[in-house]
Amino acid sequence: MRRVPYLLPALAVVLFVAANAVYIVDERQKILRLWFGEVTAEISDPGLYFKVPFFHEIVRYDDRILALDTEPLEVTPADDRRLVVDAFARWRIADAKSFRRAVGASGEDGARPRLERILNAELREVLGSVTSGTVLSADRVALMNAIRDQSRTQAATLGVEIVDVRIKRADLPRQNLDATFERMRAEREREAADEIARGNEAAQRVRAQADRTVRETVSEAEKQAEIIRGEADAERNRIFAEAFSRDPEFFAFYRSLSAYEESLKGTNSTLVISPDSEFFDYLKSDTGDDSQ
Known about the structure:
The protein is of the alpha+beta class. It folds into three domains: 4-62, no CATH class; 66-172, Tetrahydropterin Synthase, Chain A; 209-284, no CATH class. The protein is 54% helix and 20% strand. The chain has eight helices and nine strands. It has helices at 4-20, 96-103, 107-127, 132-136, 141-155, 174-246, 248-263, 281-284; strands at residues 22-25, 29-35, 38-43, 47-50, 56-62, 66-69, 73-75, 83-93, 160-171. Strand 2 (29-35) and strand 3 form a beta hairpin. The mean pLDDT is 81.
């Protein structure tokens, strides 16, 4: 009975030591087993493993593909047009031992700033060798692959594999956007003014052509009218001449009646003519013959 009080603490110590002598490796993790800070084993196969309690240190790293979102970066392409680039990368720990030596106890949190610096440097180098039009075009897969490959080489020293790099956004800075918008608006206004000027010029040509056509048409019509009028007068004179040749006395009578009509027009017509004048020949007789 006296041994019972000592057995319980001893049992508790044994259970505690046994619990600290085993550890489980998850399939989503890489494990480093350290002996006083020195790596003695790298374990990636899932299962139950044993260690020396209090002497072995177990360091766990995520074996999945991890995300790295960079801060927006201003780059200057070959044509000196500044761009704000927002990119992201996907990475994973390929060599846990090299990773431990590179980042120490800071782990993944310590690796992200170093990876971001590598990615930013490659973004500046690759995008700085091409024009902004190439960066802004939809077909920029080759640029992203080049950034990925060059970043992969640099990240290998950290025991990290860069799986992929993608550019989410590549825009002009705000001040450049405003300046570009103003240039575009000025260009459109200039083009509009040119179109208006060309339209006015074309309208002037059309109006001038129309005025010329009107004058030519009116002139041609007046010419034709004069020709027709002349032909009509000639025909009238021919008819008069023919009539005169057939009956001179009737023609003389007709001319006298026309003269009477023209001279006696109006309400207050006064003629001062000698009664013996030939003008009254057809008023004094039916035949115009003075002998009758």
